[in-house]
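The data are set out underneath:

___
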Amino acid sequence: MIKTLIVDDEQHCIDSIIKLTESFDSNLEIVATCSTVDDAIAKTKTLQPDLIFLDIEIHNKTGFDYLESLGDYNFNVIFTTAFNDYAIKAFKYSAMDYLLKPIDKDDFIQAIKRLKKRIQPIDNAEQIKILLSNLQKEDKKKTIRIPTSNGFEILEIENIIHCKADTSYTYIQTKTDNILVSKPIKHFEALLTDANFFRIHNSHLINIAHVKKYTKGKGGYVTMSNQETIDVSTRRKEAFLKLFN
């Protein structure tokens, strides 16, 4: 059985998760529920749960306050939230699981299936550290967790020069490496557009900070900081040039 703790300050949300666990053969055993961060910290230390369903806003504190107070993460976390776009972006960077309220049954089932496949607890602890790092002040260097055939790599986003599509795979070109990832380029477009990246071509997503030169043409092309040249598609040219106005 997977010992499970629910942390949420709304009883109807706690009841919803309990009902979902009862309707789905998930091997989840609810060992306790908590409506405050302080109670959650105490019960986590006492009960040593395997899984935490963690709300973001908990009275005058947050789920992130809870994680920072613990420091040792021998458990998995599935966040539950009704809002907070910035936090959701951070979840995606770190590959953390989250469920949007009201929680959909199919989304819940998929989250539990992913949980059972996850390497734990070391893999999950690293995810939490990346999440908390990315939620800190804007001037901190943000990182992204990249799955590889042997595990994963942690990349500083500012060091990514561009991403290149290869069917359902993507090559990520950094200052020092070219990494093949089993994710389509649209996955990285969704993650990185808010981090100053732009899809200049169906096959290329570039870091604007690494553009060194634009050369005119039908669509033209850019020269990146590593001296690679990449074509700009004609239909994306106007939107691309507006970034430099």
In short: The CA atoms of residues 197 and 208 lie 6 Å apart. The chain has two domains: 2-134, 158-242. The first strand starts at residue 2 and ends at 7.
